[in-house]
């Protein structure tokens, strides 16, 4: 995972929309950051604060992405630890970790200066803490040990919630795991108290996010396209790899034969014993959803299904909030299940052939396919074109061709983020259309002057750069159409360059 994160991390120093927000917020003073969070993006406040401290090391796009690389590397390690704990097999742990590390969506967010990798690591840390707490309960450990483990669980869930409130959806997945275990009312009660503490601790953030609901007004209702994107996020960027991974995941949740039922680490026998046909025949087991206890399926299947389902359902019946990256941590289930499933297939193969060495072959084939068949998507996500917007290319283009005294207009306040992300590239030009700067407005866009003010100002400039939408009379009525009409009447288009998500044009006064 670390190698996948480091590969192509610089991405030509280009930043997407969210990464520009991260960099700018991280470089604000604490007072300025507090002013920003009072108006917008309070849900990312903890992450911005962490990045504010990290920016002491450096503020280049590459350096700002390192925390995400480290977090996703930790998450891959936690995947392996959880798989080993629930199956007793090092092979299942290895395959689960590799499946996650080879998934392009994981590399994508490992190389994005945003909170989603940190959320992923916190959710998996909380899941592992849940397993430790439940095992302590069944082992009748000292009450102080039990209390400490539940506190660790609650603390990790609280941190995950403050990094992204959608992480709290994993509590519903954990509830199913706890109920399936059938460890008694005491365990259920202790989990409920820990979950309630973490949810209550995040209430201030939840209340503030409701007040700032305009920040997510761009989210539309999910459809089939959203489900297709989520499928590829979880199971692989190509259809072939996705199908192979899904088949292995299905194998993992099939009713067990013999001793396949995964048990807590304290009761798991060595992997060698689990592969023995004689032992399997001697130990009948029921389906994991009826047998009780902790199993890989009872932990992984809820992680995979429940958070995404709840957010999709909410977005269909109420205000849309579903975005695939908000439930990225569901990939944990999409790695754990195939890892265990392909190991199970290896067990079948080794028993059929009578050769124990074959137990790792299916997993090696699956991981090799995941690597080779997804090289093209892996390479693409390491280019500026992989993000919805490329603010680096337009900024460098303006820096290379601007003259001192040029003006600049942003056709859409969103595109003012180019100047936020790359202020040095805009030293020669003047944003004469801004009424309140992002710093003054307490947001990432600022506000524009009305045409009654910008129209006369436009005629004072010999050259005007336009970044964002291409000026045209067909634009919706309002400021941008009025500015377009004046440009086409009194200026000549002398340069045009399209970048990912935006166009840069240069206009010369007639």
Describe the structure.
The protein contains 26 helices and 7 strands. The longest helix has 27 residues, at 61-87. Strand 6 and strand 7 (502-509) form a beta hairpin. The radius of gyration is 26 Å and the shape is elongated. 60% of the residues lie in helices and 7% in strands. It starts with a helix and ends with a strand. Helix 5 (61-87) runs antiparallel to helix 6 and helix 19 crosses helix 20. Strands 2-1-5-7-6 form a 5-stranded mixed beta sheet, sandwiched between helices. It has 2 domains: 2-386, no CATH class; 392-509, no CATH class. With 510 residues, the protein is α/β, with parallel strands linked by helices.
Keywords:
510 residues; alpha/beta; five-stranded mixed beta sheet; 60% helix
Provide the β-strand percentage band: 5-15%
User: Main beta sheet: strand number and arrangement?
Assistant: 5 strands, mixed
| Order of neighbouring strands in the sheet with most strands | 2-1-5-7-6
Helix content: 55-70%
Arithmetic mean pLDDT:
92
Q: How many structural domains does the protein architecture include?
A: 2
- Principal-axes geometry comes out as elongated
Question: Can you give me a brief rundown of this structure?
Answer:
With 510 residues, the chain is an alpha/beta fold. The protein has 26 helices and 7 strands. It has helices at 2-6, 17-27, 30-39, 45-54, 61-87, 90-101, 104-110, 116-138, 143-163, 170-181, 185-201, 203-211, 224-235, 239-253, 271-274, 277-282, 288-291, 296-317, 331-353, 361-372, 375-380, 392-401, 417-421, 438-441, 451-458, 479-490; strands at 406-411, 429-430, 434-436, 447-448, 463-468, 491-499, 502-509.
């Amino acid at each position: 995972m670390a190698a996948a994160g480091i590969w192509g991390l610089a991405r030509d120093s280009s930043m997407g929309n969210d990464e520009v927000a991260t960099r700018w917020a991280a470089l604000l003073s604490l007072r300025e950051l507090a002013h920003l969070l009072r108006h917008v993006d309070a849900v990312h406040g903890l992450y911005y604060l962490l990045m504010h401290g990290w920016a002491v090391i450096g503020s280049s796009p590459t350096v700002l992405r390192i925390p995400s690389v480290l977090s996703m590397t930790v998450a891959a390690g936690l995947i392996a630890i959880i798989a080993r704990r629930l199956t007793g097999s090092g092979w299942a742990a290895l395959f689960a970790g590799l499946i996650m590390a080879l998934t392009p969506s994981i590399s994508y967010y490992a190389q994005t200066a945003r909170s989603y990798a940190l959320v992923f690591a916190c959710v998996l840390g909380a899941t592992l803490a849940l397993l430790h707490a439940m095992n302590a309960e069944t082992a009748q450990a000292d009450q102080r040990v039990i209390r400490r483990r539940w506190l660790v669980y609650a603390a990790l869930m609280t941190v995950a919630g403050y990094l992204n409130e959608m992480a709290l959806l994993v509590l519903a997945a954990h509830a199913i795991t706890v109920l399936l275990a059938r460890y008694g009312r005491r365990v259920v009660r202790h989990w409920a108290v820990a979950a309630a503490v973490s949810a209550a601790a995040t209430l201030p953030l939840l209340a503030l996010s409701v007040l700032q609901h305009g920040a997510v007004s761009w989210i539309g209702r999910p459809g089939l396209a959203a489900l297709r994107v989520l499928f590829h996020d979880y199971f692989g960027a190509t259809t072939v790899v996705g199908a192979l991974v899904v088949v292995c995941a299905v194998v993992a949740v099939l009713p067990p034969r013999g001793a396949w039922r995964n048990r807590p680490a304290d009761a798991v026998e060595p992997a060698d014993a689990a592969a023995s046909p004689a032992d399997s025949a001697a130990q009948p087991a029921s389906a994991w959803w009826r047998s009780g206890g902790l199993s890989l399926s009872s932990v992984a299947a809820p992680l995979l299904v429940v958070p995404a389902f709840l957010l999709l359902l909410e977005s269909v019946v109420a205000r849309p909030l579903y975005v695939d990256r908000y439930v990225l941590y569901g990939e944990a289930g999409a790695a754990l299940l195939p890892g265990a499933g392909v190991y199970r297939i290896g067990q079948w193969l080794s028993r059929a052939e009578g050769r124990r060495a074959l137990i790792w072959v299916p997993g090696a084939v699956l991981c090799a396919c995941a690597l080779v068949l997804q090289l093209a998507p892996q390479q693409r996500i390491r280019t500026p074109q992989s993000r919805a917007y490329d603010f680096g290319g337009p900024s460098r283009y303006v820096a290379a061709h601007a003259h001192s005294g040029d003006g600049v207009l942003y056709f859409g306040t969103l595109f003012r983020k180019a100047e936020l992300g790359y202020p040095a590239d805009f030293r020669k030009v003047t944003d004469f259309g801004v009424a309140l700067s992002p710093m003054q407005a307490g947001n990432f866009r600022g506000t524009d002057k009305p045409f009654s003010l910008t129209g006369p100002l436009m005629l004072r400039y010999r050259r005007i750069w336009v970044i964002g939408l291409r000026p045209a009379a067909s634009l919706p009525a309002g400021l941008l159409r009025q500015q377009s009409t004046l440009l086409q009447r009194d200026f000549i288009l002398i340069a045009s360059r399209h970048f990912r998500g935006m166009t840069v044009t240069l206009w010369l006064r007639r």
